Amino acid sequence: MSTNAFAFKGALRDMIRALPALAGYQVTWGYPTRSPERRWVFVGEVQWPDSQWATNRSREEVFEISVVVNAQISGATAEEVENELQVMAAGIEDGMKSNPSLGIHSVVSSDFVPKKVSSFPSDQVYEGQLESVVRVKARL
Length: 140
Description:
The protein is of the alpha+beta class. It has two helices and five strands; from the N terminus they run αβββαββ. The chain has helices spanning 5-18, 78-98, and strands at residues 26-29, 40-53, 59-74, 107-122, 125-139. The chain has a five-stranded mixed β-sheet. The radius of gyration is 16 Å and the shape is elongated.
């Protein structure tokens, strides 16, 4: 299978790990292992909603990589947790804007697309999740 998705996924994970806004977050390829820290980011599922031949010798693929940010803050409110998630999302978005190809030369464009934010109380803390995708167009 020829794809740029896995190289981009690794570069995306590495970029998120290096972001100052996400210092202290566990950043993983896929779901964290057992007993994950309560502040984590996972770069997970890959989907290919579109692929088209650009010429008779090359093809353009579009793929999406899920990115989930989880934050748990003791003594916080839903608003405070969701504000924390917004700061984390802004960090990822800024990282994508500064280097949309993440060093993968065949990448034509990429975009960070937030999908859903939710928060809920959990044992004296508030926890929240931001679900998003990074949409990428690349040439093969």
